[in-house]
Amino acid sequence: MFPPPRMLLSAILLLATGTVAITYDYVVVGGGATGLSLAVRLSEDPTKSVVVLEAGASGIGNPNITNLRLNAGNFGTANDWQFVTVPQVDAGNRTQAQIQGKVLGGGSAINSGMYLRGNKAEYDALETLGATGWNWDSMFAAVKKSEHFHPPSQTEIDTLGLTYNPEYHGFSGPISIAIQAINVSRFFPEFAVPTLQGLGHSMNVDPNGGFHNGPSWDFLTALPDSSTRSYAVSGYYLPVINRTNLHVMTESQGSKILWSAAKTTGGLATATGVEYISFNTSGIPKTQTINAKNVIISGGTLNSPKILELSGVGNPAVLSPLGIDVVVDLPGVGANLCNQPLTTASYLLKNGTVDAGNAIRSAIIDIEPFSSYLKGADLQRSEELLATKPDLLSEAQFAVMKTLITEGVPQMEFAWNIAADANNVSTLTFDRLILVKPLSRGTVT
Ligand SMILES: Cc1cc2nc3c(=O)[nH]c(=O)nc-3n(C[C@H](O)[C@H](O)[C@H](O)COP(=O)(O)OP(=O)(O)OC[C@H]3O[C@@H](n4cnc5c(N)ncnc54)[C@H](O)[C@@H]3O)c2cc1C
Predict the structure, then answer these.
(1) Would you say the CB of residue 32 lies under 6 angstroms from ligand 1?
(2) How many domains does the chain have?
(3) What range does the domain containing 39 cover?
(4) Does residue 308 form part of some domain?
(5) Which tens digit of pLDDT belongs to each residue from 36-80?
(6) What's this model's pTM, rounded to 2 decimal places?
(7) What residues form the annotated binding site for FAD?
(8) DSSP track, 298-365
(9) 371-426 pLDDT, tens per residue?
(10) In testing the pocket of ligand 1, which one of 7, 28, 29, 108 has its CB within 8 Å of the most ligand atoms?
(11) In the listed set 300, 321, 356, which residue is the last one of a domain according to the structure?
(12) Which of 34, 105, 306, 354 could disulfide-pair with 420, CB 3.0 to 4.6 Å?
């Protein structure tokens, strides 16, 4: 009943008109972390047909993807959308690269693989803000279902002091999780942990149970070697690549949603499919369409608004000047953009702290509220800043965030990383000094 599986199907599925011959139950636009996983789960029902359109290439087997430590090799390449911000007034008018995965698996194919759930209070805040049923309890059950945790070996526990709580993990899901262990030198148990303890931060046995304050070991989306990436493609898609009701088309970029001419009696617009541009048939971009009963847009934070707006869903003040007919008046599209600023700091260590040529990726992370680090006038200044709502933040979100902050939900993340060069010069780098809950908001159009 369905055409043959596998990727790159567009050439054989097209009619002369450029329309795919069947009506799918679901078309998923964006084969990233969310879209690809969702498509695999939807296609578990063999009576439903699902097609995924991914703008990027498959990337399967690319070492910059499979080896978690080589992920930066994707930045600025065809696997990255290579977006840049507008000049940032509060950053000396500099622009910033906004790396976004453009490859099957999306961000899960090129990210740093750090596996850390938020605080219980943050998930519960989603429900407070109106997302009924989205709270810590429901999310905790779902994330554990997706997880296959590989506990550290007894040797790693004995020599490095790695810790975890089995109650916080799933053991039979598609995504492998392991604690960073490879090349972790004695530096961490001998120096880093005592230093943090001396500052009054005792180790958090496992940060994945809804309370991540304090230093803890770094959990990664990786196989037990803590180098081989586990992501939407390897965990969800490859095990079912021969599923006949699931089709994944790479180098196929969704350009807009197709709508039924008639609205429902309630005035709602009904999607009937998607227009997309295929780049994989002959090297010449070709506009085609796909019919589907349900259209799911999962292009990621920066691309989903664009697809919606090109489809007439968005703020009329943005769409009308561009000559786009408004199908759904939805001013929130492209608003409320939030990103976490990140900086780094490096220090030279005594020679021989780590072995020559070895580098490890953030063995320890420390996640803290401002009040743990800021003192005196700095703390007072942060309290003053909290008194005024930033322009683009809604009253409801501001109220929730102030509560999180004042109740001690952390705002800062420090990740410890060490490396040695060929001359055995060792460096300690805080490679992620991140403000995890910024109050400022931006827009994407
Ligand atoms: C450099 C980097 C490092 C990160 N590190 C971490 C980390 O250590 N830990 C962590 O938890 N998170 C990390 N993240 C964030 C994480 O990867 C994202 O939160 C996650 O991937 C978002 O999933 P998504 O499905 O919303 O979007 P994405 O995974 O970005 O997927 C969107 C997909 O849609 C495709 N697409 C977009 N537009 C179209 C279109 N018009 N037609 C067809 N396809 C389209 C894209 O190519 C992409 O494949 C990192 C992200 C980046 C970029």
Answers:
(1) yes
(2) 2
(3) 1-112+229-300
(4) no
(5) 999 999 999 999 999 999 999 999 999 999 999 899 999 999 999
(6) 0.92
(7) 103
(8) ---TTTHHHHHHHTTEE-HHHHGGGTPPPSEE-TTTT-SB----EEEEEEE--TTSS-TT-B---SEE
(9) 887 888 988 888 888 889 988 899 999 999 989 988 889 988 988 888 887 777 88
(10) 108
(11) 300
(12) 354
